[in-house]
Each structure stands twice: as structure tokens, then as C-alpha cells.
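Appendix B.2, paired examples.
Example (i):
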Amino acid sequence: MTTITAEPAYWSTAQKIAFRFFMIFFILYIFFNPNALEPYTLGSFNLYIQPFHKLIPWLGKHVLHLAKPITAFTGGSGDTTYDYVILLFLTTLSAFGAIIWSITDRKTRNYNKLLYWLTVIVRYYVAITMVSYGSAKIIKLQFPSPSLGRLIEPVGNMSPMGLAWTYMGYSVGFNYFTGFAELITGLLLFFRKTTTLGAIVGLVVAGNIMAINYCFDVPVKLLSTALVFMCLFLMIRDTTRLINFFFRNRETLPSNLSPHRFKAKWKNITLTVVKYLLIAFALLSNFDNAISIAKQYGDNAKKPPLYGIYNVESFIKNKDTLPPITTDTLRWSKLMISYADNAQIKFMNDSMKYYSFKPDTIKHTITASTYADTLHKFNLTYTLQKPDLMILKGAWKKDSVSIRLRKMDPKNFPLLKRGFHWVNEFPFNK
């Protein structure tokens, strides 16, 4: 009969206090940051979080005396002032909760059963998050290929996050590599027997995510750090076993993976059914959602009318031909149409600006405006004299313009043209 590692009958005082803190903290953290779990809450998150959108700014103003009021909440960024104050709020609640729990519960010898269920909650949270992340990379949705505007943008003008997105988005293979690593982590964490392996792989995968977020100023630093700590938490039961195996070259006993069952058989059956339904739903819903969005916005989505990069060969303003002077802030240098109803214009001084750009392919007209002032429209007509030659005429701001543009093939960029080579006699590094 195989001997397994026994669950400790007595916990030290430090272990019990630490557990009480992290039990409260992890549950509160998931409550305030459902992340990939949010679709499963049926919109309840948007209801119960509203009072905290008032409480946290009040605490920031009256308790922490922040220099600026909190007006931005978790959205495109997960590292807002609100998020940091929420983290402080959760840490404070957890500390007070642990103190009260420790005072009122001095006789409990261990929390083996609570630890088991907390482990289940944490590993499912990390697992579903990893499945969500993985599906967005395998379908290549999170990191799209470099846009036409990005291809002509100097590297020095990119933000650190923009550089990271361009680096990741360039390679389909690297998206598959990182995506499957995240997906495998999630699948391993769904099951008790592979939890430790999943936590080890997850620590590496989440650690890489955290490193990118910190080193490229991606505003998901708090969440990625939480995922790393959760993976470490999932490994904590096997600390001695892992140290003996990896560092001391000692024999290790099998871990105790016996599930905590209910006395009523129907409860255990129900729990098992719910488990597999949840796993199936997490996989199918995430991939179905990613595939659906990719059809609209992914690399293979239908290209908008007039898609392409256009070099401006001549620019006539009010019947005067503007020479291509590099200090000119009015004359266009290039026009990039990458997405539907959107264009990017590069001016002669190398500045770039996004515009709402809506072509009518029947009337051959374009209605444009700045995003800062959508009420003032610029009306242009376009003529395709050749497949690669377009003439724009009409009103641009307060001037009449006639612009001659030549379409270029983006595949001629070395970044897209080079491809992969097994054999390289010399490094192609430029």
C-alpha cells in the first residue's frame, strides 16, 4: 500500500493567521476582480460594484487625502488609482478580518477542509483566466498583426505597450506558443491530480505575462501579479515535496489528493456534473467568442473599402501646390486605411493623427472628421484612375484640396517580406 503525505492535524499559530488572511483576501479579490469569470456572473458585477465606485473615491479624498479625485475605474486599464485603492482596501479588510477571526477562533487545530475549498476556488479562477487568455492568442485576437499605420511609424514614436503589441502581433507562431501554454495551464488546473504541475507551469506563464506588463508598462500589472501569487499559493501545500525533489534529491511521498466529499451521494454527483459543465462552458464560450470577434476584427477579417497605404504624390490646397517640405504640418505625406470607418494620416513633419473616415463606394464620396470634433465634417470625393492611383478632391477643414495618392504594397516591408528561414548564411538584422 502506497504511503501518502498526511494532512497535518495541527497547524502552527503563524500558519493559521496567514491562512485566515489569504482566505479572506483571495475571496475578496475575486469578488472585486472577476476578470474572465465576469461573463458567468450574468451581469451582477456591474450591479454590486456600483456602491464601491462611490465609496472608493470618497476614501481616496477624505481618508487618503489624494491630490486628485478618483474618476477613472477599471476598464481599459487595470492599474488605475481606483484599482490601487481597492487593493489597499482589500488588504486592510483582510487584515482586520484575520485579526477578528484569530481572536474568536482559538481552538481550531487546522483548516485542512477550508484550505481544500479555497484551493478549488483559486485554481478555477486562474484556470478560467488562462483559458480566456489562451483562446485570445490561439485565435490571434489579442495581438493583431501590425496595422498599416504601425508599419510606417518610427519605433521611437511607439509607446512601450505599442512596441510589445507589435512584437507579439507580428508572429502567428509565437501567439500559438504562448496561447497553448496558457490553455494547457488552465486545463491542468481544472483537475486535482494535475494541480501542482499546472501551478508550476502557470507560475512560468503568469510570470512571463507579469514581466511583459512591468517591463513594457502594460496596465495589467496588478492582475498578473495576483495570478503569480495565486500560482505560488497553489504550490504551497507541496513546498516540502518540491524542495526535496528539485533541490535535495530526496525521496518524496505522494501528495494527499483525496477529495473532500459530502455525505449525501447526490451532492457529490451534482458537484461533478457542474464541474464538467463549467469546464466545457469555459472552453467553448471563450473560443466561440474569440472566433466571433476575430471574424470582425481579426487578421483575416474583411478589409474596408480603399484599404491600403497611400503615398501622397501631390497636394494642392486652394489651387496652390504645396511642396513636400518636412516641416509642413498641413501637407499629407501618407494616408493609411486599416480599419472600417477609420484612417490615419501622416503629415510631412512625421506627426500622425487618426480620423473618422467613412467612404461611400456607390457615390464615391468620403465623409471625414476628427475624433475630437465629430460635428464638423470634411467632404471629399475619390476617383480611382488606376488600381494603385487615387485622386481625392473636396473640402478639408477650411480649404479646398486636390490630393494625388499612389497605393503601395505593404508586403514590400522587410518585416512582412522576410518570413522564416531554416538556413541563414548571414544574420538578417536591420
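Example (ii):
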Amino acid sequence: MANLLLAIVFLLVLIKSCDILVNQATSLAKRFKVSNFIIGFVFVALGTSLPELIASGHSMLFGHPSLAISSIIGSNVVNLCLILGAVACYKGFKLSTIDAHYNLPLNFIATLLFIFIAFLGNQTITWISGVIMLTVYFALTVFVNDHNHVVSQIKYHKLNWLTLGLSLVVIVFAGKFAVENLLAFATEFGVGETVVGAIIAALITSLPEFITAMVAVRKGNAELGVGSIIGSNIFNLFFVIAICSFINPINLVGFGDELLLLAVATLSSVILALSGKRYYFSRNEGLVLLLFYLVFLYLQVHI
């Protein structure tokens, strides 16, 4: 269990270091007069998804693609089902028209497009697929330009080059030690890498999304919370996995059930948003999403 505790500690250090790095990076981008839209959409998504990127990148480098992919898919399921469901059960919230008509459907279309690209390559994502996925990601970034609603939420911090450099160093080593201890835990207790990635790593690396969504809804700004979840999910699928494919080809054989559940859960979020009380996520909608997460957990443990 010592390995698991160390992994959790290093993952928490990774999350905090990523937060510091993104704060400094946004300040640096502002100094170089990068547009507010690019800072808003790209850096907000990067801020909540950087832990997944670092942890998955290290897993690929260590030759453990199953851990990398399971943590990414698991993180997306956590974002959509556990976080959105838990927030709705805690405090019901009304979705904006933009989220209901554009962003949630876009998230579903993006998920289907990812699955299509994966099966187009015989369930293997090569660097060529990675290039296509990065192109799709940046195309989606341009598409949501007119509907972006997170730019005004950015807080700029004072740029400190030493802090920027140290946070980058800590991120590299924290990610390395977190993955090493997760693998050691899996080996010691005979737990499958996909279970470790989809449950443990996914839950911990999704903490930024959970905190963002909970605080946003509590303050009456559900748009920010939902927007961060959608942006993070698209970033995970099309940016993080694309980067991983440049390290080694990614074989998705064996992840069919997880991808299917992710697609169904994503479609359900659209249906739930458009049905019943107009654009409102109540406890009932939250319970449906939590049920999907329980099904996901069952698949990981028993299949």
C-alpha cells in the first residue's frame, strides 16, 4: 500500500505544480500579447488536463500504453458522469443555451469522431492518426471561438521565471514517480493496469475539473463548470492521446466497452440537457450520470 500512497502524493504534487505552471504560462502568453481567446480556451483546458497529459506521457515512455489510455478514458468518464452527476446532486443548475445547443452536442460528435479515427486505423492510433487528431482539435478550437465563455474567468498572476522553471521540473519528476508507484502497486497486488488507470489515476487527475465545476456551480456560474469539463474531455481525446501516439503507436483493442460507455454517457448528457425541465440538471439527471459511472466501475473490475 506504500506504493499507492506515494502515487497519490506525487499525483497531488503534479496537480498543484501544473496549476502553478499554467498560471505562469498564461502570464507569459499575455506578455507576448497572445489573444484572449487562445489564452482562455487553450490554457483553461490545459490547466485542468495537464496532469492527464504528463501521467499518460510517462506511461507511454515506460512502455505501459494500457495505463495511459485507461487513465484518459477513465478521466473523461469521471468528468462527465461522476463530476457532473455529483455536482447536480449537490446543487441543481441550469445550463446555458450555448452549452445545451452547441457544447454538449459538440462533445458527443467529438467522441464519435475519435472512435471513428481509432477504428479507421484498425483500432491503432499511429503518429499519422495523431496528426489528424491534433488538426481536429485546433479546428474545434476555431469552431468554438464564437461560443467561448471562459475567457473572462482568467486571473493573471505575476510572471516569475524561477517559479515557471521550477514548476516544470517538479512536473516532470512528480509525473515520473507517480507512474512508477502506480505500476509498482499494480504489480504487487496483481491489479490490472487498466483498472489502476481508469479508477485511481483518473479520479485523482480529475480533481481540477471537480474543484472547478463545484466552485463554479456554487457561485452560480454553471457555464464555467460545464465548459471546463467539455474542454477537458475534448483536450484529453484529441490532444493528449495525439501526443502519446508520437511516442508509441496506441492499440485500443480491449477498450471497446469503455469507449462505447463513454459515447452513450456523452449522448445521455445531451438528451438529459434537452429533455424535462428546459436545460436544467437536477438531482434526477445527476443520479442517471452517477449510475453510468457505477456501470463503468463494474466493467473495470469484473470484465
